[in-house]
Amino acid sequence: MAYFDHANSSPVDERVIQAMLPYFREFYGTAGLELGHSKDIAALTGLEEARKTVAKSLNADPRAIVFTSGVTESNNMAIRGVAVANKGSGRHIITTPIETQSVLQSCKRLEGAGYEISMLDVDEYGLIDLNQLKKTIRDDTILISVQHANGEIGTIQPVEEIAEIAVKKDIMFHTDATHTYMRVPIDTESFKANLISFDAHRIHGPKGIGVLYIRRKTRIHRVLEGGDEERRLRPGIENIPAAVGMAKAIEIWEPNENEHVLNLRKYLEKKLKESLTGFTITGHPENRAPHIFSMVVDHVEGESMLVHLDMLGYSISTGSACSSKTLRGSHVLRAIGLPPEVSHGSVRVSFSRYNTETEIDGFVEELCGTVERLREFSPLTSGVYFANEEEDNHHHDLPEDDW
Amino acid sequence: MGYSDKVIEHFRNPKNMGKMENPDGVGTVGNPVCGDMMKIYIKVEDGKIVDAKIETFGCVAAIATSSMTTEMAIGMTIEEAKELSRQEVAEALDGLPPQKMHCSNLAADALHKAIEDYESRQT
Q1: How far is residue A242 from each of residues A12, A55, A298, A324, measured CA to CA in Å?
Q2: Which residues of chain A have pLDDT under 50?
Q3: What residues contact A160, with CB distance under 8 A and at least 6 apart?
Q4: C-alpha pair distances (Å), A328 with each of A9, A81, A348, B49
Q5: Are A193 and A161 in contact (CB under 8 A)?
Q6: What is A14-251's CATH topology?
Q7: Model pLDDT, residue B1
Q8: Would you tell me how many other CB atoms lie within 10 Å of the CB of residue A254?
Q9: Which residues pair with A182 in a beta bridge?
Q10: Which of A323, A279, A278 is nearest to B58 (CA)?
Q11: Is the CB of residue A53 less than 8 Å from the CB of residue A247?
Q12: Which residues from A are below 8 Å from B98, CB to CB?
């Protein structure tokens, strides 16, 4: 048995839970006033210490750290906040089709409000082309938003180069670092992004807390209205226990952790090459988040693999349309050019400090058995494709939501 | 996951899966682009379906409905099998998640096509 879905969410480390508990039981004040009562002062101290820890992890000033409820909020704030603050100088935004939904939907919403969005192409690995980026920049471009690493296929974008291009043109650059934070070094002294989004629950911290790093002099407006919290950029009482938990998760991160997950990923690749047939690794072979392995398996469907492996005690994920409520397949796999019948067989395995090679041995054995079993009765195995030429309208005949 | 115990049971131990030698009728529905494809084979004696086999590419619901449809069809007369609906298959599995009702529950359609194929061979 093993949990291999750490890119989705990770178990909270016991040390994190212990660090958080006093902020529920004793230090339950808020951090709004510097001259409040002792409960508030204790809460404020905890929050500000957490802010310093986060800042240190990026080699940044604590004033650049704004706590949010998670990456979705950080991304909304970065994109919509920059759009509002810069509308005087332009309404053109550049992003990629493989961003997470909170980036894509924020852009879509702006598009409906008179902004223009340019989508960069990505190659078979999911990489953007810097020359195309340079050509896409216009006088009225106000923001470039390109993720650091992709959550489904792990590919790391050349964000340092993008930041340099953006700085030269005085364009704001935002990157979603959800899948690289703590796993790939980020030093904001040398890496000139204006805005960086990340959260705690993928690094063994709690859910409900994230950060938007905002470089000094970044032109951004708040998107929520309210009080003075977080330097008025993000009003609302901070989630102090979670911020303290996030800081603890950062503090206990071991220097060899990223090497550990990288070794596990390479070990899995080696084992699969020895024992599984008919699969292709997706994403960049080298330049990728160390803990994310992804592939497509021929002739079997991802949800079936996921549920079958789950019965055997292994948690993985898939980008197959069949596993989503809307039945829309992964936009990432589509963007890197995989046809739907191939992306239906996608599998992602993501590691953490808790995983071992022994777990991978057991997993590979069960995965091979699962695939073999499903292939036994798959009509695709014998090469029967597209036997039915008729329109299959019912496939897109989704029921209306009752609510 | 939102699947009933019965769906999971049929997914875990699907019945009548695989190819059939010398079938009396064959029906194929779906395509792999949509994520579900089924090919059903039937054997008919004296107007009754005496055996059925199915090959399925697809999700848990697709595999479970394939298994259930063939189980229900075996023993039915051709006329009864023509009336077997997707709804009845879903009900026999104690229901399916709403988004799966339309997309993965295709085995009954495949069965009807196999019957058409069988009937066309009789003339």
Answers
A1: 11, 16, 42, 29
A2: 386-403
A3: A190, A191
A4: 22, 29, 17, 37
A5: no
A6: Aspartate Aminotransferase; domain 2 (3.40.640)
A7: 53
A8: 9
A9: none
A10: A323
A11: yes
A12: 399
Query: What pLDDT does A387 receive?
Result: 42
Q: What SS3 state is found at A66?
A: strand
Q: Could B35 and A339 be called an inter-chain contact, meaning their C-beta atoms sit closer than 8 Å? A: no
Please, are residues A90 and A113 in contact by the beta-carbon 8 Å criterion?
no
Which B residues in the span 53-82 are in contact with A, Cβ-Cβ below 8 Å? 54-63
Indicate if B59 belongs to the active site: no
- CA-based nearest residue to A293, from A317, A315, A265: A265
Cβ separation B39–A395 shorter than 8 A: no
CATH class belonging to A256-402: alpha beta
Q: In whole angstroms, what is the distance from residue B84 CA to residue A178 CA?
A: 49
Beta strands in A42-137 (DSSP E): 65-68, 92-95, 116-119
Please check whether residue A178 is in contact with residue A213, taking contact to mean a CB–CB distance below 8 angstroms.
no
CB pairs under 8 A between A and B: 115
Give the largest CA-CA distance in chain B. 46
Report the Cα B5 to chain-centroid distance in Å. 19
The SS3 of residue A149 is: strand
| ipTM, interface predicted TM-score of the complex | 0.93
Number of residues in chain B: 123
Taking contacts as CB-CB distances below 8 angstroms, the residues of chain B near A326 are 99
Per-domain boundaries in chain A: 14-251, 256-402
Q: How far is CA A26 from CA A23, A42, A207, in A?
A: 6, 9, 21
A269: burial class by Cβ within 10 Å (0-12, 13-18, 19+)? middle
**What are the residues whose beta carbons fall under 8 Å from the beta carbon of B88, sequence distance 6 or more?**
B72, B108
Query: Is residue A77 within 8 Å of residue A223, measured between CB atoms?
Result: yes
The pTM for the full model equals: 0.93
Average pLDDT on B31-36 reads 78
- The pLDDT, as a whole number, for residue A114 is 96
Token pair for A297: 């398996």
Query: Are the beta carbons of A203 and A248 closer than 8 angstroms?
Result: no
